[in-house]
Amino acid sequence: MLFVFRSNSGSSCVSMKSDRSMAHPTTFKSGPGPDDEGVSQQSSQVLPGGSAHQHQTHLDSIFKMLEDNMVTFMKEELKKMKKLLIPDYPARSESEREDEDEEQRSSRESLVRITLDFLRRMKQEELAQRLWSRAFAGVCQKKLKCSLEKRFQCVFEGVAKQGESTLLNQIYTELHITEGGAAEVNQEHEVRQIEAASRTADRAGTSIRPGDIFEASPGRSQPIRTVLTKGVAGIGKTVLTQKFTLDWAEDKDNQDIHLTFPFTFRELNVLKEKKFSLVGLVHHFFTDTKQEGMYSFEDLQVVFILDGLDECRLPLDFQNTEFLTEVTESTSVDVLLTNLIRGKLLPSARLWITTRPAAANQIPADCVDRVTEVRGFTDPQKEEYFRRRFRGQQASKIISHIKTSRSLHIMCHIPVFCWITATVLEEVLRSREGGELPKTLTQMYIHHLVVQAKVKTVKYGGGAATDPHWSPESREMIESLEKLAFEELQKGNLIFYEPDLTECGIDLTAASVYSGMFTQIFREESGLYQDKVFCFIHLSLQEFLAALHVHQTFIKSGINLLEEKQTTIQQSPQQPQLHHLHQRAVDKALKSPNGHLDLFLRFLLGLSLETNQSLLRGLLTQTGSSSQSNQETVQYIKEKLSESLSAERSINLFHCLNELNDGSLVEEIQQSLRSGSLSTDELSPAQWSALVFILLSSEEDLKEFDLKKYSASEEALLKLLPVVKASNKALLSSCGLSERSCGALSSVLSSQSSSLTHLDLSHNCPGDSGLELLSAAVEDPHCSLKTFRLSSCGLSERSCGALSSVLSSQSSSLTHLDLSNNDLQDSGVKRLSLGLESPHCKLEALSLSGCLVSEEGCASLVSAVRAESSHLRELDLSYNHPGDSGVKELSAAVEDPHCSLETLRLSSCGLSERSCGALSSVLSSQSSSLTHLDLSNNDLHDSGVKRLSLGLESPHCKLEALSLSGCLVSEEGCASLVSAVRAESSRLRELDLSYNHPGDSGVELLSAAVEDPHCSLETQGGPWWTAVAQTWSEEVFLSTSTG
Predict the structure, then answer these.
(1) In angstroms, rounded to a whole number, what is the distance separating the alpha carbons of residues 449 and 811?
(2) How far apart are CA 353 and CA 308, in angstroms?
(3) Cβ atoms 135, 2 nearer than 8 A
(4) Burial (Cβ within 10 Å: 0-12, 13-18, ≥19) of residue 320
(5) Domain ranges for the chain
(6) How far apart are CA 913 and CA 910, in angstroms?
(7) Which among 398, 836, 898, 918 is most buried, taking Cβ atoms within 10 Å?
(8) Contact at 8 Å (CB) between 207 and 177?
(9) Looking at the domain that runs over 702-794, which CATH code has it been given?
(10) pLDDT in tens, 171-196
């Protein structure tokens, strides 16, 4: 290192580079006298009583000596600084640093600062920055790390007890982050996205550690500059960036990064009308950088974190914004950010942007190098969270309760909802005032509201926990928050500023006591914020309070806030007609194209129950519950379920029925399922919807869905599409499906929330047109299909063109394709081979069994099989007509070092002993990877088996399984196999000789070979062969236990 400076506080600050020669201090002249004491005495004698001339002479002498010392010091230090500016100048050892004099260190720091000032006056910015980087970057880094460590080491979960906070490292639970997807908009309500994600959380891809967010994936050559991380509200995106920053500040991770600057768009919104340079913006938020003189980022690896793009109120215009390349040039904050993200400004920096899915498309795709998604907690991570919060039996009780409520279990996918749930259940279990534990979302949020009111009473009001917690002041505050929630929800706003709160009559000082319901985002450092920013801790809480506002307004005044023209509904004070409000809410929710009112509707209906209203006694001064009114609402919902609704809308209506404690439809279907008497031919639309709801709400993981369990029909498939969408594997073979089904399945495959990785459509009639629809969907970036079975689907060569496009698509994930028993012919295989040859093709297994492939078709496959980029491990050409010539060409390809084929099936291909010579060459080839070979039902005869045995005996042979069933093998052929089976190098574990003519002597020869210690044929604890006398011949069936 170059310098070790001592700051004013006395703490040691270490620089980043060093100069070996600086270990030797400069020697200064000490004065004209023989020693320091003489000079001191002389000074004391001359100064007080001497003449002015003597005084001046003495001063001249001192300053001459001072000038000599300073010039000597500066010359020496400037020489060292000059060396320092030479690239790759060697660092000095740790022992040399320890020997450095403290006073010398302080003097050097001052001189470097003076030198920097002069270099900048001389317009030598590049040299100044290089000198600063090597002299002070370490100092700046250390101060920045100290500041960020203090800022992020503690977090507050909702309403923290006075003076208490929680260490982030203590409560942090690893989040499930996956790579993939596109930086595009998802307009679905986030609860729908959460429900979809909860079904696949444990099955999704490999999790990325926060510290590896900028690490390139294997095989990626280009470095990652910009990462866009998506995730629904409350999923943990902000905590994730805080953990990344804290680990860096604590020297635990990413130490190749010199400086990390975390920003939030909430903070940046406040600066909308101001102008900054990039350096100025950093100085504004991180004052230590300005104090240390940082005016450039040259030679530094810098990370900018931009958290909360969905909350951005800056006009980010990537099409028309002026270009900016200088970090010291001032402009508006939106222009600054646009150029930083676009890479025009400081292209060497790394950026991490977080956002909710609905705002992801604000950043152009070409500006993003990696898209990741925070998928929240998996089921084991949910349990881990609660076991961190609670101990022993209490933790087990809470986890058990959450599992009994599907809606709560799904919402606990979100970390912030886990906190709400933990807070509520802890209080309810302690007080037992609420009777049963909350089971619905409405009950959970009602209890949450009550808990916050209690905290306010005890923590801020000085009252006891047993005191009434709804005072006139607290009621007024909650009602103001309800109004704010509703009005801002209508505008689509999730963050608010002081004027928004003032408009709703909220006093900011009083509001701070409800920090559990909305969060003030501000820091104490001076000059950082001009305004405070507010938000509810989660969108769902804002929706709950909005529903409470609509409910209370209707009960108090009869005004329906959901009507475009608000009118007062005349009603009896004893019996408010809530079903009028509810019916209007149901209609409005069903018309919402993206389900944006789904959760609001659930809350509004749940608030009508008398049991829920009793929990809010004190806040609700009037009740509006009526069993008759609620029954009318239930009946209205059931009528709607009988209409042609989308699956998502129907499912939400069943959630609404749950909130109203009506499970009659669901129970009816469940009873039929349990008794095995379910007849789908007689189901009404509402009952079909109930079946979908039951299957999706089942605690069992939907890994496999078999349509034939319910009804092998196209109508049943169309009704149960949401279940297909949520499943990993869909078994739809032999269900009478047509092109119509393909259109519906295409929408499932290309959906962002689809879980489907395995689709079996064998023995249906999709036709080429239907296959083309499906192929387009499989190419979609959202499609994760890996296995596609299309056996016996009446496809022609036309389908091969569409499938070839899929195989060559970079976005396709397809690895297994079954096209067996379709009349593709050679022309179709030729078109398919074009896709197989693509460097983007990921296919590992291909079945073309029974596809009318001849020698010509085999020839077209050769180049695909031997392509350097090929991933093909398994090829099935059974029941075709390649002929011996086709097999010879194919064998040559299999011997190619680039060929990765491990399994080759050539059953019933009309092969003769000629093919055995070519295949024997493959088996004895050192470059061949073949481990499984099926030659069954070919007339190879003993002569063919003899030629094949030569390859089997080769020390290079890797074959593990060989099928020679029905190949006209006699005793002579068996004898030739014996030496191969007992060869020391043999790896053969499975041998199928069924439907041949070995005779008794052949059986004896092979039985003896099996006893040989070198033989590796698997017996699995029993005889490796079974003899079966055939009535029509003297055939003997011989096989391994697995053959």
Answers:
(1) 46
(2) 7
(3) yes
(4) exposed
(5) 4-136, 172-376, 378-463, 570-685, 702-794
(6) 10
(7) 836
(8) yes
(9) 3.80.10.10
(10) 666 666 777 654 444 455 556 666 66
What is the pTM (predicted TM-score) of this model? 0.72
DSSP string, 192-208: HHHHHHHHHTTTS-PPP
Q: How far apart are CA 548 and CA 479, in angstroms?
A: 9
**Strand 370-374 to strand 177-179: parallel, antiparallel, or no bridges (unpaired)?**
antiparallel
- 865 burial via Cβ count (<10 Å: 0-12, 13-18, 19+): buried
Q: Which residue has the tokens 């040259």?
A: 298
831 φ, ψ (degrees, to nearest 5): -65, -40
What span, in angstroms and rounded, lies between the C-alpha atoms of 370 and 364?
Answer: 12
Is residue 717 within 8 A of residue 732, CB to CB? The reply is yes
> What does DSSP say about strands 874-876 and 845-847: parallel, antiparallel, or unpaired?
parallel
Q: Please enumerate in sequence order all residues whose Cβ is within 8 A of that of 94, keeping only pairs 6 or more positions apart, or say none.
A: none
Bridge partners for 260 per DSSP: 303
HSE-CB of 698 using CA atoms within 13 angstroms = 17
What is the torsion angle, in degrees rounded to the nearest 10, for the CA atoms of residue 863, residue 867, residue 872 and residue 873? 100
> SS3 of 372, please?
strand
Asked whether 835 and 804 are in contact (CB, 8 A), the reply is: yes
Q: Which of 282-296, 767-781, 881-895 has the lowest mean pLDDT?
A: 282-296
Q: Does domain 172-376 have CATH number 3.30.720?
A: no
Q: Name the nearest CA neighbour of 420 among 394, 402, 434, 396.
A: 402
What are the residues whose beta carbons fall under 8 Å from the beta carbon of 427, sequence distance 6 or more? 447, 451, 454
**758-760 vs 729-731, strand pairing mode:** parallel
**Closest Cα partner for 236 from 421, 418, 483?**
418
Query: Which two three-digit tokens encode residue 77?
Result: 């230090």
Tracing tokens 């003769």 back to the chain, one arrives at: 912
- State the Cα–Cα distance between residues 599 and 29, nearest whole angstrom: 82
Q: What is the largest CA-CA distance in the chain?
A: 141
Are 172-376 and 702-794 equal in CATH topology?
Answer: no
Q: Give me the DSSP letters along 919-941.
A: HHHHHT-TT----EEE-TTS--H
Identify the bridge partners of residue 731 per DSSP, sorted by sequence position.
Answer: 706, 760
Q: For residue 910, what are the CA distances in angstroms to 459, 903, 907, 936, 967? A: 88, 19, 8, 10, 11
Give whole-number Cα distances, 269 to 36, 214, 261, 273, 361, in Å. 62, 26, 17, 9, 19
Please report where in the chains the tokens 């390859």 appear, as a residue.
951
Q: How far is CA 747 from the centre of its chain?
A: 22
Give CA–CA dist 423/470, Å, rounded. Answer: 19
Dihedral of CA 777/781/782/788: which sign?
Answer: positive
Report d(CA 168, CA 150) in Å as an integer: 11
pLDDT at 387 over 70: yes
Predicted confidence (pLDDT) per residue in 638-696, tens digit: 999 888 888 788 888 998 998 898 888 888 888 888 877 777 777 888 888 888 888 88
**For residues 481-493, average pLDDT:** 86
Q: How many CB atoms lie within 10 A of CB 181?
A: 17
Residues forming a β-bridge with 990: 961
